[in-house]
Amino acid sequence: MSNEVKNGTTREIDGKSCVFYDGYWIRSYHLHKDSYADKKQMIDQLTRRVFHHVEQGINTPSNRLDEIRAIYESEEDPARKRVKGAMLAGSLLNRGRHILTAIVDLEDAGVKIESSNELLRECGRCFIEALSLGKHIKLADGGEGVDELWGEPFKVFSMPIEDFFKSRYIKISQTMSEIDQVSCGICNIIDNNSSFSELMSKILELAVMAKMTCETIRTDPVMFDVWPRYIAAKEAYEESLQNLLVDKNHKKDEQYMEAYRLIKEGGFILIKLATLRVPIPDSVRHFTRSCTDFIETS
C-alpha cells in the first residue's frame, strides 16, 4: 500500500487544521455556504487586496463607469490607453461588487434572486469585462503576478466557493514551493561565501514566516501573531543585509557585491511571494538560474 498523501487530504497538525496539496500542508479554513452574502464578503476582501498591490490610480469609483469608458474608447495614444483601460477595469470591478451588495440587501429583505435575474447577469458581465481588461494592469512594483490576483474576484463570483478554495490551496502550495526554491538559492550563495554566514538563520526564518503568511487569510485572528513574526523576520534580514554593506572592515570586491546583489534580490522575491500569495514562476526561475550561474563561476 502506498504511503503517498493524496491532494485534498485534511489533517490536524500541531493544533492547526491543514489540507495537503503538492507536497505541502496548508492551513485550511471552514468553507462558507454558496450564498451571495458569502461571495460578496469574499469579493470585498479580494478587491481590497488587489487594489493594494496594483498600480496607483486605477481604483475608479463605480459611478464613473460610463465616463471612464468613453475616455478609454476615445484615447489613441497606446501608453495612455493602457492606463485608462486599467482605470476602466477598476471601475467595472467596483460596479460588479456594488451590484452584488444590492443583491445581498434585497435577499436580506426577503426578495428571492434567481440566477436568471438581470441584475445578477449584469454583475457577471461587469466581472467578465473587468477580467478581460486585466491585461492593462501592472503591479505597483512591476513584475508578474497581477493576472492571478485580478482573476480571483471573478473566480469567487463564477464558481462554487469550495472550488475556489481548492484553487487557492493549489496556488499557495505553488507559492510555498517557490519560497523554498528562492531560499535554497540564497543559502547556496551564503554557503559559498562565509562573509554572509550571519544571514543564514535570518533567511531561513524569513522563509518559514513567508510560508506561514501566505497560507493565512487576513481575517484569521492568528494573523495577529503571524504578521508580527513575519515583519520581525523581514526587518532582521534587512538590518543584517544593510550591516554587511556598510561594514568598512570588509573588502567588497566584485564577487562580494554580486553575491550581495543576489541575496538582496532573493529577499525581495521572498517578501513579494509572502504578500502577493500567488506564484511568480518567471521571476523565481530567473533568480535560481542566476544563483546557479554565480556559484559555478565563482
How would you describe this protein?
The chain is mainly alpha-helical. The chain folds into two domains: 36-159; 173-297, no CATH class. It is built from ten helices and three strands. The chain has helices at 36-53, 65-74, 78-108, 118-132, 146-158, 161-192, 200-215, 223-246, 254-276, 281-297; strands spanning 10-13, 16-21, 24-27. A three-stranded antiparallel beta sheet has the order 1-2-3, with helices on one face. Helix 8 (223-246) packs antiparallel against helix 9 (254-276). The longest helix has 32 residues, at 161-192. The chain is globular. The mean pLDDT is 92.
* Secondary-structure element pattern, one letter each: EEEHHHHHHHHHH
Gross morphology:
globular
Distance between the termini: 47 Å
The portion of residues forming beta strands comes to under 5%
Q: Rounded to an integer, what's the Rg over CA atoms?
A: 22 Å
Q: Order of strands across the biggest sheet?
A: 1-2-3
Integer average pLDDT: 92
Please sum up the structure shown:
The protein has 298 residues and is mainly alpha-helical. Helix content is 67%, strand content 5%. Strand 1 and strand 2 form a beta hairpin.
